[in-house]
Amino acid sequence: MFKLAVYLRAYKKEVIIGPIFKLLEAIFELLLPTIVALIINRGIGMRDTNYVFKMGALMLSLSIVGFGCSLICQYYASRASQGFGTTLRNKLFKHISSLSYTEMDKYGTSSLINRITNDVNQLQLAVAMLIRLVIRAPFICIGAIIMSMVLDFRLSLILLVATPVFGIILYFIITRTAPIYRVYQQKLDRIALVLSENLSGVRVIRAFAKSRQERVRFNESSEDLTRTAIRVGRISALLNPMTTLVVNAAIIAILWVGGIHIDEGQLSQGEIIAFINYITQILLALIVVSNLVIIFTKASSSAARINEVLGTATSIPDLGDIDSTSTTNRINVPAIQFNNVSFGYSKMGELALEDVSVEIGHGETIGIIGSTGSGKSTFINLIGRFYDATQGDVKVDGVNVKDYSLQQLRRMIGIVPQKALLFTGTIADNIRWGNEHATDEEIMKAAAIAQAEEFILKLPDGYNTGVSRGGINLSGGQKQRLTIARAVVAQPHILILDDSSSALDFATDAALRRELKENCIQMTVLMVSQRVSSVQQADKIIVFEEGRISGIGTHDELMIGCEVYKEICLSQLSSEESRT
User: Fold this and answer.
1) What angle do CA 461, 467, 468 make, to 5 degrees?
2) How far apart are CA 558 and CA 279, in angstroms?
3) Which of 34, 485, 502, 530 could pair with 450 in a Cys bridge, judged by C-beta atoms 3.0 to 4.6 Å apart?
């Protein structure tokens, strides 16, 4: 938890001044019982009305000044805690954005969302309590004990005996609840995962009439979380009553011993009332401390989870410094080169790619085909360095992809993923993601190449038509065409279409391939597809099977020399079509 204190450096003033004002308020509060004792003994006891009014005015003044100090502290606490939370949240988001797919897969989206929202909120609350109460509550306890010693040392020994008892109670609660809070956070992640899957997959769930099963799954996760919450709540619930029990036992002992001292003339009525007031202050302060224990136990668990993410180094270090502009004239080297590349998603797991070697020339259109899980998407993910090869090396324009900065490498490569993802804004805004400086003419040209212009012009506002979250107001084919336009407008050296025309009809797919061939002559185009018709006219076709390349060549060459490709063709095309 202390590792995160670095994010409070910008709020040193607030962290120092806030508690000082809270201490002033606590000092004024500690003086009040003594003033009450003086009013009872000297004012009421001696029937001195002026003294009563004078001391009453002093009490009122102290209360008003204390209230002002409390407000100032509250202001600084809010400013520091909110600023701390914002800084930490931004840092966490920046770090998460730098993580590779490997780390993203390890934590999961729902867990990362919980850490950047719920866990940061827990730490924000802890910072606010740190400034407002962490110093004040112990100070009130210690100050009340000291003030009671001034009144009657022997009577105050009762409070000194009660203090270690309370410490034992706190130790018991902390050691029992801290591990459970960590488990609670993990189960909260599970709830978020189930909820996220249900909301994003609601159409599929309803289509398969699985709503009841999903409700059962959510209820099971919710009940599991509830059981953990009840378990930790039962332990935490012991804190306040046990604290009250100890303090009330101390009050009874003080009243009993104090009564004896009053009878013996060693203690006045005002002093015993002041003693009870100090005991009450201690009780309230201890209740605050007990609640702080719960808050900081939760915060400690949240801090550990945040530190875990911040301490995770990306498996794709961005150490390259090669400028992509220095490689644009390397026409004598392949645009893409794989040298004995192997890759596995886990160190001990099965290889997704094994001993892959291939060269792709500049300006070539390459078709990539294979059965599901054959390694096609893995192959293209290594080109964009979303993962690093386990063995061998991947080169773009003759340079190892690790020697490029990630920003430079990905400027050279335009990728259209399998799942079309659009963002809120207009259609023009979404296409402009590929090139923020693109002119209207360039946007329209990219849309025309992607076969999106026709449907865009039919929309009420054309290119200014709004896109809902995730593009839910567009069809699957329309979203795919817009994502293709987004990649094309960037004019990358390498354009990768990862099965990104699966929702297009055959005529539109053919028109798209024709436009790409005519207008993107300088681009190296990789077309990943399950359709033979989509890759049939490519300059070369790479056939994947179980993580290996089983054939490279033109359609006609592969029909003769690659049995895997021939089987795929015959399963999709008639015997006459497969020969054309």
Assistant:
1) 135
2) 91
3) 485
Q: What tokens were used for 81?
A: 């805690």
521's CB contacts (< 8 A; 6+ apart) are 363
Indicate the SS3 state at residue 137.
helix
At residue 360, φ and ψ (nearest 5 deg) are -125, 125
Average pLDDT, the chain: 85
Largest separation between any pair of C-alpha atoms in the chain: 120
Each residue of 37-74: b (16+ CB within 10 Å) or e?
Answer: bbbbbebeeeeeeeebeebeeeeeebeeebeebbebbb
Cα separations in angstroms, 320 against 73, 317, 324: 48, 8, 11
Q: Tokens representing 457?
A: 């012009």
pLDDT at 174 over 90: no
Q: Show the 3-state SS of 57-125.
A: HHHHHHHHHHHHHHHHHHHHHHHHHHHHHHHHHHHHHHHHHHCCHHHHHHHCHHHHHHHHHHHHHHHHH
| pLDDT surpasses 50 at 576 | no
DSSP state of 404: B
Token pair of 560 as six digits? 């003769």
Please say whether the beta carbons of 454 and 461 come within 8 A: no
In this predicted structure, what is the pLDDT of residue 171? Answer: 82
Measured in whole angstroms, the distance separating CA 235 from the mean position of its chain's CA atoms is: 29
* Candidates 3.40.50.300, 3.20.10.10, 1.10.3720.10, 3.40.50.720; CATH matching 328-578: 3.40.50.300
Order of strands across the sheet that contains 365-370 = 413-416, 494-498, 524-528, 365-370, 540-545, 548-553
The pLDDT tens digits of the residues spanning 501-555 come to 777 777 888 888 888 888 888 889 999 888 888 888 888 999 999 889 999 999 9
For residue 62 the two structure tokens come to: 């102290």
Q: Which of 200-214, 320-334, 347-361 has the highest mean pLDDT?
A: 347-361
User: Residues of CATH 1.20.1560.10 domain(s) within the chain?
Assistant: 2-177+233-310
The CATH 3.40.50.300 domain(s) of the chain lie at 328-578
359 has which bridge partners? 337
pLDDT cut 70: percent of the chain above it:
96
Q: How much is the pLDDT for 326? A: 52
